[in-house]
């Protein structure tokens, strides 16, 4: 006997398999590493922008695997910003 699924159950399960968009990749540690490496190895600004953009696209396509299953706040800079916001809010509550 198979369980019958409703359309809402199917859609809610499938939405968690969707990869996070490019903004989350820009805040990740991998993108930061690509930025530092390309900044220090490439001399001209135009080549830096072109190679960094290419590395970012390749990194997003093949290395970035965060999905909408609750890992939205795992990228490096988003975690750091969340920690700073928590500290600020806790200090406001102390005063």
Question: Could you explain the architecture of this structure?
Answer:
This protein is an all-alpha fold and 95 residues long. It has one domain. It has five helices and no strands. It has helices at 7-15, 22-26, 29-41, 45-62, 76-94. It is flat. The mean pLDDT is 78.
* Backbone shape: flat
Distance between the termini: 61 Å
Helix content: 55-70%
Low-confidence stretches: none
Number of domains: 1
Q: If you average the pLDDT, what whole number results?
A: 78
Note the total helix count. Answer: 5
The radius of gyration over CA amounts to: 19 Å
Q: How does the major sheet shape up?
A: none
Backbone structural class: mainly alpha
Order of SSEs, N→C?
Answer: HHHHH
Tally the beta strands. Answer: 0
Q: Report the β-strand fraction as a percent range.
A: under 5%
Give a quick summary of the entry.
By secondary structure, the protein is mostly helical.
List keywords for this structure.
95 residues; mainly alpha
Write the layout of secondary structure elements.
Elements: H1 7-15, H2 22-26, H3 29-41, H4 45-62, H5 76-94
Helix pairs in contact: 3-4
């Amino acid at each position: 006997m198979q369980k019958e699924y409703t359309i809402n159950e199917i859609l809610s399960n499938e939405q968690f398999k969707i990869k996070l968009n490019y903004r989350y990749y820009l805040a990740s540690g991998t993108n930061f590493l690509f930025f530092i490496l390309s900044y220090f190895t490439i001399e001209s600004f135009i080549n830096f922008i072109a190679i960094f953009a290419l590395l970012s696209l390749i990194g997003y396509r093949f290395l970035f695997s965060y999905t909408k299953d609750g890992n939205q706040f795992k990228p490096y800079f988003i975690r750091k910003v969340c920690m700073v916001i928590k500290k600020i809010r806790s200090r406001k509550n102390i005063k």
